[in-house]
Write a structure and sequence with these properties.
The protein has about 110 residues and is mainly alpha-helical. It has 5 helices and no strands.
Length: about 110
């Protein structure tokens, strides 16, 4: 799951001409779905928590770039899923690794 997210990050950083309305629609659907799928529950195993954290790190970087893309390139209002992810990532109960991505604006992928 992390690799496709990181590929989109690279495209958004370097080749925004490939970000079509269809791509944005697909990102909206996928990232909206992942809001629920990446929630961490008490019953989750350490492996599940690690996987969800890795996904959320990539999503955080991607959402920062999408926010910039919408504000700078598209000149459109931010979609709900972008603001929802931003609020989730900045929540005090979120992992510090996730919050720090937003606080520091870190978008480099591993």
């Amino acid at each position: 799951m992390v690799f496709p997210l990181n590929a989109i990050i690279i495209i958004l950083k370097n080749n925004t001409q490939f970000i079509t309305d269809k791509v944005l629609d697909n990102l909206s659907i996928g990232l909206s779905y992942l809001i629920e799928e990446t929630k961490i529950y008490e019953k989750d195993t350490d492996k599940e928590i690690h996987e969800k954290l890795s996904i959320k790190i990539s999503i955080s970087r991607l959402i920062i770039l999408l926010k910039r893309f919408y504000l700078e390139s598209k000149r459109l209002d931010l979609p709900h899923y972008v603001t929802k992810w931003e609020n989730l990532c900045l929540d005090i109960n979120e992992f510090s690794e996730i919050r720090n991505i937003w606080i520091n604006g870190k978008i480099n992928h591993h």
